[in-house]
């Protein structure tokens, strides 16, 4: 397994040149997360086409994680990767836990977008079916609830969720911008945004791991260190909480940063 880079200054787009440099004749698939966790990116249609074309060039299938596909609130509309199934075969992954806000319900689906029957011809479709026949089934309670959740959830539940996430995202972004050592990047979807830390503005804190550890210990605020994601001196901030809790958390982060700021 190899990791390709995303480009923060280009709305976290896939580094296509870097991707092609990593791929070889043994590469069978690439994974795309759209909308993105942890970055909150939502890819434009043109970029998704470039991804599909790169996959086709190397004979790869695209595994598209679209668990947050219905939680989009920015200027970029969500476009499913499957629209480019004619260019490269697509496996789309979805989940009930995000749109319907039931974290912990390990229930999802796989959709094959493969009009050219490439996955069928190479036995991939059959392998997926065989795996599902041996995997553990969801609890009976979950199975019983799924049909009603899908059929009976009122439309205002979805719109209220989007409006809340849009508001929380804006508050989170604006709050972090007020803190000199943070450079936040706007979220277009999902429940997260990424922010870059300027460690040179902090006293006695050398990296993102130290920052997050001390922030949790001193202010009881938990953010994810970027090192866990391969991004040193970044943090992922989750804004899917009550607005009052979010504002309290931001004020604690601000107090922590000012308390540990280098004296000019």
Automatic annotation (TrEMBL):
<dbReference type="GO" id="GO:0030170">
    <property type="term" value="F:pyridoxal phosphate binding"/>
</dbReference>
<comment type="similarity">
    <text>Belongs to the class-I pyridoxal-phosphate-dependent aminotransferase family.</text>
</comment>
<dbReference type="InterPro" id="IPR004839">
    <property type="entry name" value="Aminotransferase_I/II_large"/>
</dbReference>
<dbReference type="InterPro" id="IPR005958">
    <property type="entry name" value="TyrNic_aminoTrfase"/>
</dbReference>
<keyword id="KW-0032">Aminotransferase</keyword>
<keyword id="KW-0808">Transferase</keyword>
<dbReference type="GO" id="GO:0006572">
    <property type="term" value="P:L-tyrosine catabolic process"/>
</dbReference>
<dbReference type="Pfam" id="PF00155">
    <property type="entry name" value="Aminotran_1_2"/>
</dbReference>
<dbReference type="GO" id="GO:0004838">
    <property type="term" value="F:L-tyrosine-2-oxoglutarate transaminase activity"/>
</dbReference>
<dbReference type="InterPro" id="IPR015424">
    <property type="entry name" value="PyrdxlP-dep_Trfase"/>
</dbReference>
<feature type="domain" description="Aminotransferase class I/classII large">
    <location>
        <begin position="2"/>
        <end position="253"/>
    </location>
</feature>
<dbReference type="InterPro" id="IPR015422">
    <property type="entry name" value="PyrdxlP-dep_Trfase_small"/>
</dbReference>
<keyword id="KW-0663">Pyridoxal phosphate</keyword>
<dbReference type="InterPro" id="IPR015421">
    <property type="entry name" value="PyrdxlP-dep_Trfase_major"/>
</dbReference>
<protein>
    <submittedName>
        <fullName>Putative tyrosine aminotransferase-like</fullName>
    </submittedName>
</protein>
């Amino acid at each position: 397994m190899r990791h390709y880079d995303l480009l923060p200054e280009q709305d976290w787009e896939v580094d296509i040149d870097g991707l092609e440099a990593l791929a070889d004749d043994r590469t069978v698939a690439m994974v795309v997360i759209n909308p993105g966790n942890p970055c909150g990116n939502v890819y434009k249609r043109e970029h998704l086409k470039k991804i599909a074309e790169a996959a086709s060039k190397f004979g790869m299938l695209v595994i598209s994680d679209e668990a947050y596909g219905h939680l989009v609130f920015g200027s970029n509309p969500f476009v499913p990767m499957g629209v480019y199934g004619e260019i490269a075969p697509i496996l789309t992954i979805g989940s009930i836990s995000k749109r319907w806000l039931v974290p912990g319900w390990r229930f999802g689906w796989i959709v094959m977008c493969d009009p050219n029957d490439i996955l069928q011809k190479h036995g991939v479709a059959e392998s997926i079916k065989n795996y599902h026949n041996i995997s553990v089934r969801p609890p009976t309670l979950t199975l019983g609830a799924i049909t009603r959740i899908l059929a009976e959830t009122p439309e205002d539940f979805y719109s209220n969720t989007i409006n809340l996430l849009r508001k929380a995202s804006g508050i989170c972004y604006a709050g972090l911008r007020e803190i000199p050592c943070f450079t936040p990047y706007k979220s277009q979807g999902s429940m997260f945004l990424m922010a870059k830390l300027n460690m040179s503005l902090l006293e006695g804190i050398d990296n993102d791991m130290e920052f997050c550890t001390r922030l949790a210990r001193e202010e009881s605020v938990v953010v994810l260190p970027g090192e866990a994601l391969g991004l040193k001196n970044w943090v992922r901030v989750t804004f899917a909480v009550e607005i009052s809790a979010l504002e309290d958390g931001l004020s604690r982060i601000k107090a922590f940063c000012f308390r540990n700021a280098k004296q000019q």
